[in-house]
TrEMBL record:
<feature type="transmembrane region" description="Helical">
    <location>
        <begin position="298"/>
        <end position="320"/>
    </location>
</feature>
<feature type="transmembrane region" description="Helical">
    <location>
        <begin position="140"/>
        <end position="161"/>
    </location>
</feature>
<feature type="domain" description="Major facilitator superfamily (MFS) profile">
    <location>
        <begin position="12"/>
        <end position="390"/>
    </location>
</feature>
<feature type="transmembrane region" description="Helical">
    <location>
        <begin position="167"/>
        <end position="190"/>
    </location>
</feature>
<keyword id="KW-0812">Transmembrane</keyword>
<feature type="transmembrane region" description="Helical">
    <location>
        <begin position="244"/>
        <end position="262"/>
    </location>
</feature>
<dbReference type="InterPro" id="IPR036259">
    <property type="entry name" value="MFS_trans_sf"/>
</dbReference>
<feature type="transmembrane region" description="Helical">
    <location>
        <begin position="211"/>
        <end position="232"/>
    </location>
</feature>
<dbReference type="InterPro" id="IPR050171">
    <property type="entry name" value="MFS_Transporters"/>
</dbReference>
<feature type="transmembrane region" description="Helical">
    <location>
        <begin position="368"/>
        <end position="386"/>
    </location>
</feature>
<protein>
    <submittedName>
        <fullName>Arabinose ABC transporter permease</fullName>
    </submittedName>
</protein>
<keyword id="KW-1003">Cell membrane</keyword>
<dbReference type="InterPro" id="IPR011701">
    <property type="entry name" value="MFS"/>
</dbReference>
<dbReference type="Pfam" id="PF07690">
    <property type="entry name" value="MFS_1"/>
</dbReference>
<keyword id="KW-0813">Transport</keyword>
<feature type="transmembrane region" description="Helical">
    <location>
        <begin position="102"/>
        <end position="128"/>
    </location>
</feature>
<dbReference type="GO" id="GO:0022857">
    <property type="term" value="F:transmembrane transporter activity"/>
</dbReference>
Amino acid sequence: MKREIWRETPFSVKLLLTTSFLMNLGFYALIPYLTLYLTGSIGWTLAMAGFVLSVRQFSQQGFAFLGGVMADVFGYKGAMVLGMGIRAIGFAMFAFCTETWHFFVAAILSGLGGALFDPAGSAAFAVLTPDTIRKEVFAFRNVLMNIAVVGSQIVGTALSAVDFTYLSLFAGGMFAVNAILSFLLLPPIAATNTRHSVWESMSIVLKDRRFVRFTLILMGYYYLNMQVFLTIPMLVEDVTHNKAYVGIVLSALSLFVILFQMKVTQWLEGYQQRLTLIGIGTLVMSMGLFLFTFADSLWLLLIDVFLYALGTMIAVPNLVDVVPRFAPKELVGAYYGFNGYSIAIGGSLGQVAGGWVYDIGFKLQTPWLPWTICLVVGLLVAWMLYQMERDTGQIGNDYPKIARS
């Protein structure tokens, strides 16, 4: 981030960047190794372990809309602190679970905590960050998230090698520390919604046809996004016959974002067609995935992953910047919460359908099948977002007026 932009960034936003980094460090240190712990030490099947993870995700994304609405009504700071505290309890609880139902309670608490702090945190970022530097701040946030992912692999590997209990307590501790930091240092963020009840707020979002359309289209983006957690690791292992290379490829993905995200954002800063940029980024991601069809070595895998990473670098800063441009100022949390359904549905399809198509392609000896579907999804998302921007009109600084009309 440029020094002048960093100087313009308010202290409260810098604090939010810090908490975002720490939360991602704790989250990505625990979640990958939770599956290994459940299938290894506990002796569960992979399907059962996956069910626990899906319960956590549904508990978060399924209730994020309500969580965002409540944050608008009762205040972002309170929702963030409460949500972080609940997730801290849920993550730490994994260390002491002895019965099956214990794990599900911990998963539900972890998800509900996220349903409170995630839309509230995103809304706080949007409200507290000046419009002139918001895209750069969101881009820097994406860099920090990827640094946290790389760091989490080191922490997760080290602590899980000693005892999963320590890893679980570390992850919970990260969220507890964030709750304390936010409570003590984050200035009060007054409730922005003083005119509408919870149900009225939800009704306003659902009646915003443009935003509902945008959220539905984004399901395709998250279909592609979730391949990094399932089919990409499977392909890397199938091509290299070495599980160690999976970590190398995924770390390289994060490293590319760390090195080039800010530069890509600077290159595109004069381009105001935000929806089109999200579509272009999604299309570049899908092209990187499609080229996996021809990857037969580690180097080709890394080249394809770079293209995939480039797509995320184009799409992500614009994706998070666009949501508050749809929303009336008093309903930013509600809009972020509803937008979470694109992750919940699109991400679930990406994991379930993506894995199923990959297996079908392997059985039918058509390895191009899953990656061709990804290319088609990318083309559709790019075309639909371009059409949406053309139908809506100007999407620059005047977009809030259009979206609220």
